[in-house]
Design a protein that fits this description.
Shape: rod-shaped
Largest sheet: none
Helix content: over 70%
Length: 448
C-alpha cells in the first residue's frame, strides 16, 4: 500500500516525504536508470580492486614479518614497514570514503554518513553558493557582455532561413493563443472595455471641435451635395408617391381637383427648391445650414445643456443590444482575419514580419550602437531577474534537495562518483606504502 504519511526518521536517514506531496520532487533521484546500474557495477568492481589491494599489502606484511622473525635479513623490515603503512593508508581512506555515504561498520560514529544526514544542509549550502557566485549582478553582466548577444542575434536573424523559422514559430504561437482564447470571454472583455472607456469620457466637446473644423474646411458641403442630389433623384422618380402623400393629408371637405392642384404645386416647389440647392453653392438654405452647424458645434463645446443631452444620447446608444452585438462581433472578425493571415505563408502579415526580422538582424549585425542597446537591455533584464528572484531560485535548489529521499539520493550520488572515490583508497594504499618505506628508511639511517 502506498505510504501516505512521513516515515519516522531512522539513524543516518532524513524523514521521507509523503508519497502524495513529494513523489514528483524526488522521483528522478529514486529511479535508477540502466546507466545508473552500469555505473554501480563499475563502483563494485573498483571496490573489489581497492579491497584486493588492501588484502595484498596485508599478506605482504604478514609474510615479511614472518620472514624477518625467521632471519631472512634486514630487507624484510623495509617490506614490512611499507606494507604496514599501506594498510594504514588504505584503512584510513576506506573510512573516509565510506563515511561520506554511510556509517562505517554500521557504527553511529559522529560525523559519518555525511550525505544522508547532512543532505538538507548541503542543499542549503549549494543554494547559497549558487546565489553568491552565479546569481550576482557583476557575474551576470560580465558573462553577458563577453557573449555579445546583440551581435550574435543579428548575425543569426540576418539569415533568411532563420527569419523564416522565427516567423513560422511566431505564427504558430499566435494561432495557438487565439485558438485557446474563448470568443465569449474576449468579446465580453472587449465590449466592457470599450463601453467603460466611452462612458467615462464626455464626447460633446470633442465632437464639437471636430464638427467646427469640418465646417470651417467646408468638408460638410460634399455631404450636403450628396444628400441634395439623392433627394432630387428620388423626387423625380417618385412624383406619384409625393402626390398621394399630399392629397392624403388634405381635409376631406376640399374638392379632389383642388387637392391635385395643391399637390402638384407643392411637388414643383419641392423639386425647384432641391434643384436650386443642387445647382447654387450660395443658396440661402446652404448658408443657413452652415450657420446651424457652426452654432451647434459651439454649443457642443460650451453649452452645458447641449453637452448633457449628447452624453445621454451616447449612453442610450451604447446600451442598445445592437451596438453591444456589433462590438462583440468585431472580435470574431478580427480573430478570423489574424488566423487566416498567420496560416498563409504569403500573407501581408507574415511577409511584413519576415521583412522586419531580416531588417532587424542586418542592423544588429552592422550597427555597434544598436548592438550595445540590445546588450544593455538583455543585461538589465537578466540582472533584474536574478536580483529580484534570487531567493526563489536558490530556494528551488534547497527545496528540491530537501525533497529527495536520503537513501536513494545516497545510492544515486555514490553510483555517479563512487568509482572515482575508490581511487582514493588505492592511492592511499600506494602513497601510504611509499611513505612508510621512506619513514622506515630514514629511521634506520638515523638510528645506524
Amino acid at each position: 500500500m502506498e505510504r501516505a504519511q512521513t516515515e519516522e526518521a531512522e539513524p543516518g536517514r532524513t524523514p521521507r516525504p509523503t508519497a502524495a506531496g513529494r513523489a514528483g520532487s524526488y522521483r528522478t533521484m529514486t529511479a535508477f536508470t540502466a546507466a545508473d546500474e552500469e555505473r554501480q557495477r563499475g563502483v563494485r568492481r573498483m571496490k573489489l580492486t581497492a579491497a584486493g589491494l588492501l588484502l595484498f599489502v596485508a599478506v605482504v606484511y604478514a609474510l615479511a614479518t614472518w620472514a624477518g622473525h625467521a632471519g631472512a635479513g634486514h630487507w624484510t623490515g623495509y617490506v614490512a614497514a611499507a606494507a604496514e603503512a599501506g594498510m594504514v593508508g588504505a584503512l584510513a581512506d576506506w573510512f573516509a570514503v565510506t563515511a561520506l555515504f554511510r556509517h562505517p561498520l554500521g557504527l553511529p560514529i559522529p560525523h559519518t554518513a555525511i550525505i544522508p544526514t547532512k543532505k538538507d544542509q548541503l542543499g542549503v549550502s549549494l543554494g547559497e553558493f549558487v546565489g553568491e557566485n552565479f546569481l550576482s549582478e557583476d557575474v551576470v553582466r560580465q558573462r553577458l557582455a563577453a557573449v555579445g548577444i546583440g551581435s550574435r542575434l543579428g548575425d543569426w536573424l540576418a539569415e533568411p532561413a532563420n527569419a523564416d523559422r522565427v516567423t513560422a514559430e511566431l505564427a504558430t504561437a499566435l494561432r495557438g493563443a487565439l485558438t485557446v482564447l474563448r470568443d465569449s470571454d474576449v468579446q465580453a472583455v472587449v465590449g466592457e472595455a470599450i463601453t467603460r472607456r466611452a462612458d467615462a469620457r464626455e464626447i460633446g466637446p470633442a465632437v464639437g471641435k471636430l464638427l467646427d473644423r469640418i465646417v470651417a474646411d467646408g468638408g460638410h458641403r460634399r455631404v450636403v451635395d450628396l444628400v441634395v442630389g439623392r433627394a432630387h433623384e428620388w423626387l423625380e422618380r417618385h412624383r406619384d408617391d409625393v402626390m398621394v402623400a399630399i392629397e392624403g393629408g388634405a381635409p376631406g371637405w376640399t374638392p379632389r381637383f383642388v387637392d391635385r392642384k395643391v399637390g402638384d404645386r407643392v411637388y414643383k416647389e419641392l423639386l425647384r427648391f432641391v434643384t436650386e440647392m443642387q445647382e447654387m453653392p450660395s443658396h440661402p438654405a446652404r448658408a443657413a445650414l452652415d450657420r446651424f452647424l457652426t452654432d451647434f458645434a459651439s454649443d457642443l463645446q460650451s453649452d452645458t445643456e447641449t453637452r448633457a443631452r449628447v452624453d445621454r444620447l451616447k449612453r442610450e446608444v451604447l446600451a442598445r443590444d445592437e451596438v453591444q452585438d456589433l462590438i462583440a462581433s468585431a472580435w470574431t472578425a478580427v480573430r478570423s482575419m489574424i488566423v487566416a493571415a498567420a496560416e498563409d505563408e504569403q500573407s501581408e502579415l507574415r511577409l511584413r514580419v519576415r521583412a522586419g526580422l531580416l531588417s532587424l538582424g542586418q542592423r544588429l549585425a552592422t550597427e555597434p550602437k544598436m548592438q550595445g542597446k540590445v546588450d544593455r537591455w538583455i543585461e538589465g533584464a537578466a540582472v533584474h531577474v536574478v536580483t529580484t528572484y534570487r531567493k526563489e531560485i536558490t530556494s528551488l535548489i534547497t527545496e528540491t534537495v530537501a525533497g529527495w529521499d536520503a537513501e536513494h539520493t545516497t545510492r544515486k550520488i555514490e553510483a555517479h562518483i563512487g568509482r572515482d572515490l575508490q581511487f582514493i583508497r588505492i592511492n592511499g594504499t600506494v602513497v601510504g606504502s611509499l611513505a612508510g618505506l621512506v619513514i622506515y628508511t630514514v629511521s634506520r639511517a638515523l638510528g645506524g
